Amino acid sequence: MNKAKVVMFFYALAALLSMIGIGFFVSLVFMAGTNEYDTIGIVGILACIIAVCLVFMTGMKQKKKFIAAGLL
To answer: For 65, what's the count of Cα atoms within 13 Å in the CB-facing half-sphere?
Structure first.
């Protein structure tokens, strides 16, 4: 397995963890009880959505560079 595929694996792992984070923060928003977790949940959801977008954008740019270099 060449180094380009390892780098792409880490991009995929980062995207996966960001998506799991979205689910975690959604569960905080809908948690029964007090409303103290609502703002934390909403800010966390927005931060994870931004993280997913950034990971996908940088991953696609890196993939394009790897394809141009002939590594993928």
So the answer is: 10
Q: Which distant-in-sequence residues (6+ apart) come within 8 Å of 64 by Cβ? A: none
Question: Residue 24: its pLDDT value, please?
Answer: 92
Q: Domain total for the chain?
A: 1
Asked if 60 and 16 count as a contact pair (C-beta separation under 8 A), the reply is no
Q: Is residue 7 part of a domain?
A: no
Task: Write out the residue range of the structural domain in which residue 46 sits.
Answer: 14-69
Asked if residue 3 belongs to a domain, the reply is no
**4 in a structural domain:** no
Q: pLDDT tens-digit profile of 28-46?
A: 888 766 677 778 888 999 9
Which ranges of the chain have pLDDT less than 70? 1, 32-34
